[in-house]
Write a structure and sequence with these properties.
This is Ferrous iron transport protein A. It comes from Nakamurella flavida. The protein has one domain: SH3 type barrels. The protein has a five-stranded antiparallel beta sheet, covered by helices on one side. The protein is mostly beta strands and 80 residues long. It starts with a helix and ends in a 17-residue tail after the last strand.
Length: 80
């Protein structure tokens, strides 16, 4: 099983991933689609925009499934 950095360097662009990175005071997760990568960085397209992840800070990474479809909005019974 490859390590998290090796996984990120081999995964196909467009794959949905979650990446855990070390930050001052703890860890943070990035969830989204791999858009590009270089020898030392991966760009992930998240819901809030592109995030650049430095591979030297990565402690875990894996592919994740697509999100479930959104639910239909609830309607109030008195509005039917």
């Amino acid at each position: 099983m490859p390590g998290p950095v090796a996984f990120l360097l081999e995964v196909s662009v467009g794959t949905r991933v979650v990446i855990r990175t070390r930050i001052p005071g703890g860890f943070t997760d990035t969830l989204g689609y791999v858009r590009s990568r270089s020898v030392d960085r991966v760009v992930v397209d998240t819901r809030t925009g592109d995030r650049e992840v430095v591979l030297a800070h990565v402690v875990a990474a894996k592919a994740v499934p697509e999100p479930p479809p959104r639910r239909a909005p609830r309607t109030r019974p008195e509005l039917r």
